[in-house]
Each structure stands twice: as C-alpha cells, then as structure tokens.
Amino acid sequence: MAMKLLSVASEIYPLVKTGGLADVAGALPGALAAQDVQVRTLVPGYPGVIARLGKAKVVRRYEALFGVPATVLAASVDGLDLLVLDAPDFYAREGGPYGDPAGNEWPDNWRRFAALSQVGADIAAEGLKGWRPDVVHVHDWQAAMTAAYMRFGPAHGVPKVVTIHNLAFQGRFGADIFAALGLPQEAWGVDGVEYYGGIGYLKAGLVSADAITTVSPTYAEEIRSPVHGMGLDGLINGRVDRLHGILNGVDTDIWNPANDALISKTYSARSLGGRMANRRALESRFGLDHDGAPIFIIVSRLTWQKGMDLLVDAIDHLVGLGAKLAVLGSGDHPLEGAFLGAADRHRGRIGVQIGYDEPLSHLMQAGGDAILIPSRFEPCGLTQLYALRYGCVPVVARVGGLADTVIDANEAALAAGAATGIVFAPSDPLALHGAIGRAVRLHGQRPVWQAMQRAGMRSEVSWDHSAARYAALYRALLAEVA
C-alpha cells in the first residue's frame, strides 16, 4: 500500500511562485510517486491558486479559523493533488504571497501562516474522509508551525519533517501573539515556540520535528556554524542526529532543451548548434550586440545574499573583457537601479529586465553561454541545475548546493572531461573577477567549452535519487513509531 504524505507549503509551481520553494513543492510529488509515496499538498488559497482550481470539492469547513471563515478545497491541477485553504480574509489580496504590491510584508502574516499550519495539523490528526497522512512534510517558516501544532496536539504521534529552504527567513514575531496562537502554555519556552523573547515559527518547527532536512549536504554542514547558522546553529547542533542534507532536483520534463516549447529552437548535447538561434533571440530581447562575445546571464533575486552587489562592481571588468550580460530579476531597489544604470552606460553590452518572467528564463538558459551565481550563501540553488541541463556553464561561489552540484574546470577535471563549470572562493570581488576572466578565456577555446557544456548536460539533476532518499527517511520515521 502506498504511503500517504501531507506536504504543507506556502507556494507551489505552476500555481504560485516567488522562488525555488515553489519548484520543489511542485516537482517532488511526482518524483515521490515513483517511490510509492502518495502526496497531497496543502497550500493557501491565493487568488491565482483559486482561479486555477476548476472543479473543487469542499472537504473541511471552519466557522472561525483565527477569527475568519474558511474551507479546505480538494482539487487536481496539472497532476498535483491539492488541498487549498480558501480563507479570503487572509489570502484574497492583491500583491504577492507575503506582501502588498509595494513589497511591504502583510502585518498579519503571523496569523495567515499560523492558520495554514493549524489546518495542516488538523488534517494530520483527523484526516479527510478516509484519507489520513502517514507522514507530514512541511517547508520553511510559513509552514513550520504545523510541526509545533502537531507536537502539542492530538497529531503528536504522526512523524513530521521540516525542510529548511533558506535559514535566513525565520518568521519571527512578538511574544504578544502567543495567546492568539491557540497553543497550550507548555508550548511557551526554549523547548517550544519562544525565541529570544519573541516567537520563532521556523525555530518552533525545528525543535518539534522528527527530522530536519536542508536542500543540500553542504548547506546542512554550513548551518551548524555561527557564520551560516543565523542564530539557530546551537539548536541545529543539538539535533544533528536528526539533520539530513538532501539535494534538490529539477523537473526534467519542464526543463528539457530537447522539447522546450519556450525556447526558439530545441537542441541536445549532440546538437549544440541549435543554441545559436536561442542566442540570437536572447540578444534581440535584451538589445545586445550581435557578435561572438560570450554572453553571461543572471536570473536571480537582486539581493546581498545572492552577491548581486559584487556583480554590479564587476560589470565594467566584464565588459572590459569583451563580454556581454543579460539580467533578469528583482529585489533591492538600489541594486535594481545600479543594474539599470549599467545598461545605460554600456548599451549593446548590458541588458536588464526587472521582474520575473518564466518563459524568458528558459530562453536565457538556452541562449546564454554562462550563468553568474556569486552567492554569499546558497542552500541549494536551482538556476545552476537548469543551466547544467541547458549547456549554460555555471560560474558559482563555492557555497551550499553550488559546491555540491558544479565541478570546477581545474586542470585535472578538464583532462578527465568531468568539468561542468567554474567554482570560486571566497565570494569577494577579487575571486569573482578571476572567475569571470577564466570563463572568458575558456569560452575562447571552443572544444574545451563544448566539452564542459556536454558534461554539464549529462549531469544527474533529476529528483530520482533525492526522492528515494526522502522516501527512505519517511519509512525510517514510520518504523520509529511502529
């Protein structure tokens, strides 16, 4: 009999996406199905989600969920078995999942995601008309309180897994909300939801989980240190026997240059010449000169974490080497302005589009020569996996999942035909300048560059291996409570 898993997430591709969490939540259920794990995913009923549901069935009702009426809807969308928390007072708003159109966080986020977590715990305890999960798997701070509600409620015996996608985002709120959370008094304290005098949603989930996972093995080690632990390294080291680093994968059906309808021309490792049509389309889209110079791309949040300030400072160096740059992303307004200013300063060599455009991101991977990812920390990263898949050579900092997935083009790796990218450390201007220079020089050696592209395209980036590891973890947890 298939194992039944409840996944709880604040976003899921293709319905709602702000980052890699959505891609993982959307791709992992299909990969787990091959491991005989049946997944239902609970997500908030944002307007874009509700609009995609079509025929949905009400499977649970709340007269007052944190003070507002709500229903849980069951529906299938694009092969995903969804449970949608339809609470218009919480989720039927303009803007993004976490903030208003101006980018300000909703002041009641503590209530919106406590409600999602409470419903997750209720489903774990009571099931839904003949369906009850064997294991509950929750993602990041927005869903982490599910584990706390389970631990301090009737579902405490159901195994619960909390995945950290980015420890920098923790969901911290004031102590004054504790009474409204509906938790017993025993939940208040260092071994519960209390965190430096306030309440930490992610912290509460981590201390309540039966297993903690991160999205790459290296990140699992990094967060045990004060440098990357973000104040939670003590807790994590105290639970290291419950910590697992399981690398993310990508949906290799969606991200496949051999049949991608979003690019100008399909191609494979055997037909790299097909990339030229995508290169020309990319140059036209970003107003870049049509020449043979290497095109670097950036598809990223424009933030300090992602090292975008380092890239702003490296632009003149990149252009001075004869290269071009196409940027797609949004984030900190000063960084957005700096990239736009660089595009004005270097017309034909730098192109920038502020925002996110999923089809364009596919074209950029298919037409760019190299992708720049100089992150100061990176739990896993998915863009370098897409790049490998598309023959767009990753130039990455040696941190987190970037270190786990890209093989540096050192002499030994090049000689063995194993190199898939350029890896540099530390994440500082000097190392980044050197990495860009190495990429430009290697691009000029066509046979070497194409060998790197083909090696990258052969890389195993699917979910198959990692889904098997998750399934084994779920079964081990079930064995503990048997």
From TrEMBL:
Domain Starch synthase catalytic: 4-237
UniProt cross-references to HAMAP family, sorted A to Z: Glycogen_synth
Annotated protein name in UniProt: Glycogen synthase
Pathway: Glycan biosynthesis; glycogen biosynthesis
A Pfam family it matches: Glycos_transf_1
Binding residues annotated for ADP-alpha-D-glucose, in chain numbering: K17
Residues covered by the Glycosyl transferase family domain: 290-440
InterPro entries listed in its UniProt record: Glyco_trans_1, GS/SS, Starch_synth_cat_dom
Keyword Glycosyltransferase: yes
Record field: catalytic activity: [(1->4)-alpha-D-glucosyl](n) + ADP-alpha-D-glucose = [(1->4)-alpha-D-glucosyl](n+1) + ADP + H(+)
CDD domains the record matches: GT5_Glycogen_synthase_DULL1-like
Superkingdom, taxonomy of origin: Bacteria
GO cellular component: cytosol
One example of a Gene Ontology biological process annotation: glycogen biosynthetic process
Keyword annotations of the record: Glycogen biosynthesis, Glycosyltransferase, Transferase
The family this protein is said to belong to: Belongs to the glycosyltransferase 1 family. Bacterial/plant glycogen synthase subfamily.
Entry's Gene Ontology molecular function annotations: alpha-1,4-glucan glucosyltransferase (ADP-glucose donor) activity; alpha-1,4-glucan glucosyltransferase (UDP-glucose donor) activity
Gene3D superfamilies in the cross-refs: Glycogen Phosphorylase B
EC numbers, comma separated: 2.4.1.21
